[in-house]
Amino acid sequence: MVSKSIAIIPARQNSKGVEGKNFKIFNGKPLVLWTIEFVKSLTFIDYAVISSDSERIRKISQDNNFNFMLRPANLSLDTSSTEECIIHVISELSKKKKYFDYIFIFEPTTPLRKKKTIIDAFNILQNQNLESLMTVAKTDKLLASIKKNKFTPIQKKIFRRRQEREPLFYEVGVVYILKNDFFLKEKKIVSKNTFPYLVSNTESLDINSEEDFLMVKILHKNIFLKK
């Protein structure tokens, strides 16, 4: 039996860091449109949809022949989780007899992702029979918390030379891939057994502020638009 895959783009209307960032113009197009076009280029995706509470994003989707699902107001709050969004999408599609084996989640605020990354990550998930996969990036910076004006490094053994430090890793939104049955059972995108797939620091850049928007915009223009 041939497996089927769904790609879901969660794209809320509101954003605290950058107002309307998902539909803000980014190198000539609304930011979310870059992810729409990226997903449409993936031949192994059988169905793709945007979940949003935004009428502007609905129009962008319709104008580009991309499925749109209106996200209920109670799932569009600052406190709403991505898991709730994905469960809503899968539940609504199941009512239409649409079922999938794999779920891909693409955040529109990470536009420097590469097709090879997604293909390689999916191959690892399938070949190793993993339940879920997340993307991560690496840092060798000296990370710490500050309490009562004291800089307290997270790692116990500290080296001043960057080359001697043990690297740390952090979650990034390039892609999440999950087996549908696993997700519906656990209702978690990331679990203790989720496979961490390492991507480059450039590819992992996420837009959360006006400064991010400008920096990623410049990199995107020089990496993707000059090919």
List keywords for this structure.
227 residues; alpha/beta; Spore Coat Polysaccharide Biosynthesis Protein SpsA, Chain A; 7-stranded mixed sheet; two-stranded antiparallel sheet; 6 helices; globular
Quote the beta fraction. 15-25%
The largest sheet, given as strand count, sense and whether it forms a barrel, is:
7 strands, mixed
- Low-pLDDT segments, ≥5 res: none
**CATH class wording:** Alpha Beta
What would CATH call the homologous superfamily?
Spore Coat Polysaccharide Biosynthesis Protein SpsA, Chain A
CATH architecture: Alpha-Beta Complex
Series of secondary-structure elements, N-terminal to C-terminal: EEEHEHEHEHEEEEHEH
Might you state the CATH topology name? Spore Coat Polysaccharide Biosynthesis Protein SpsA, Chain A
Spatial strand arrangement across the major sheet = 5-4-1-6-10-7-11
* Overall tally of structural domains: 1
Which descriptor suits the 3D outline?
Answer: globular
Number of strands: 11
Helix content: 25-40%
Rg of Cα set: 19 Å
Structural class by sheet pairing and helices: alpha/beta
Alpha-carbon distance between the termini? 39 Å
Question: Describe it for me?
Answer:
By secondary structure, the protein is α/β, with parallel strands linked by helices. It has one domain: Spore Coat Polysaccharide Biosynthesis Protein SpsA, Chain A, CATH 3.90.550.10. It is 29% helix and 25% strand. The chain has 6 helices and 11 strands. The protein has helices at 31-40, 55-63, 82-94, 115-127, 180-186, 210-223; strands spanning 5-10, 25-26, 29-30, 47-52, 67-70, 102-105, 132-139, 144-147, 150-153, 168-179, 195-198. α2 (55-63) links the parallel β4 and β5. The termini are far apart. The model has no long low-confidence stretch (mean pLDDT 92).
